[in-house]
Target: Chromosome replication initiation inhibitor protein
Amino acid sequence: MLDYPALAALAAVIREGSFERGAQALGVTPSAVSQRVRGLEEKLGTVLVQRGQPCVPTELGRTLCSHFDQVRLLEADLDPALKPRLAGNETTPTIRLAVNADSLATWFPDAVTRFVRATGLLLDLTREDEGHTAERLRMGEVLGAVTTDPEPLPGCRAVALGALRYAACASREFVERHFPDGVDPASLTKAPCLRFDHKDRLQARWVRETFDCELQAPTLWVPSTHAFQDFALAGLAWGMQPLLLARDHLAAGRLVELVPGSLLNVRLYWNVVRLHASSLRVLTDAIQAAAREALGRGEKQ
Amino acid sequence: MLDYPALAALAAVIREGSFERGAQALGVTPSAVSQRVRGLEEKLGTVLVQRGQPCVPTELGRTLCSHFDQVRLLEADLDPALKPRLAGNETTPTIRLAVNADSLATWFPDAVTRFVRATGLLLDLTREDEGHTAERLRMGEVLGAVTTDPEPLPGCRAVALGALRYAACASREFVERHFPDGVDPASLTKAPCLRFDHKDRLQARWVRETFDCELQAPTLWVPSTHAFQDFALAGLAWGMQPLLLARDHLAAGRLVELVPGSLLNVRLYWNVVRLHASSLRVLTDAIQAAAREALGRGEKQ
Model:
């Protein structure tokens, strides 16, 4: 049997990024945390945490943390009468998820609200590009992820959520200045475009699908959904804006589409570990309900 | 003399995260990029990029990229008559900066707009906790950073920008449910609180300054400024909200302060490499002007 107090210490160190803060979160001394983690490492004959700033788990360390999180969720399903006897200083079980920035800025808060209200449990949300969230799940860093990959990962199941729809937008003044003769491959190489980070391929994908060419343009990089839209509104660059956030600006003429009606659909899937814990069922229901409302509606318009 | 086409290849690989995409950004073949980088590594007798997904620079690789960016900025100051003769396929010089999420969501876009309009140059913004942006500058990953550290880093200068002001906020219903007898250290250990990521110590700092105790509470982790506010509005948890974003919600009663009038000031500084390039002077002016308007005003209210 694994040493669960030691696993709790390991999980706290990794979540907080240091032994001191992990100890503080557990309400014990740093030397107690350090002893527990070292004891576990000695027993297993391998390193579980690379000491540094921040402390990061090794592959086995990450697997153990994921296992620990799953055990906590199963414990939460036990007879409520047992709970007061389990432990005094227990922290609330927390489910780690990886979600893309545009979902976090649009429909995902509604899913979280439904889940937290129904269960009283909490979530630890990690932001990651939708094309890379599956990797976080595969690595055991999270128990569920909003992905673009319809295939469930091993040990997981995947459900379709609908599509986030994007429009290639800029201010009217920007379009008149950079595309006086219309948008074409030549003008696109000169007009500045927005990019969230180096994983963001949406602008390139839209250009490929619309003009059958590769995008190569001056780029304004901005890893903030707020600022990404502010920069389009200010006429600094064009970029792919989620319709859920851009619709009002488009209707009011503050933003215009580069090619009217040429939308990009990003289909999203909920990929979650197969674990028969009621909390994960409630979470999946909440995510499906919120997605149905926001993304289903987006699909039809 | 360094081999600058090779440095351009190195910078593109690191910016894009792969040799293929770096090649695409430069409009050359992947094998050309690979040869240039390998040639540079052989000449210097050391590895500059760790091949992987993504490709990441070694310490020397990072230093060389920072040097390359600075040379590009100095080139941009040369006699405009020279420029057409410099190179055909030149990309726009881009300045890399590290900025905290709450600045990106509030006053920083105005600074960027002023700068881009004045110069036509572009920025590559990286999001980082305000307590850790200075580290990115020290590592040579960026040429400037919005920091909380008033001391300039070696080779840099620092200017004060004013303070982002935060209020500890929640919905009225949340406050009534979790703090029926007022906010105190005991009730704070039970009420769920928000945290942006593990670097976010604002909630803990406010509790320490207001109640002289360490915060240890159930936590809802959410690395999105949008969702961070949505979750407070939905009554899921309390958290430190920037006044610039929360003011209207406070005025309308959708959010209330946990302890009215007990604000937290986060003083911000602009820390930038000492390089006599006109673009950096214009950037510093733009940042100071935008900060004066948004943070100066915040300070007085």
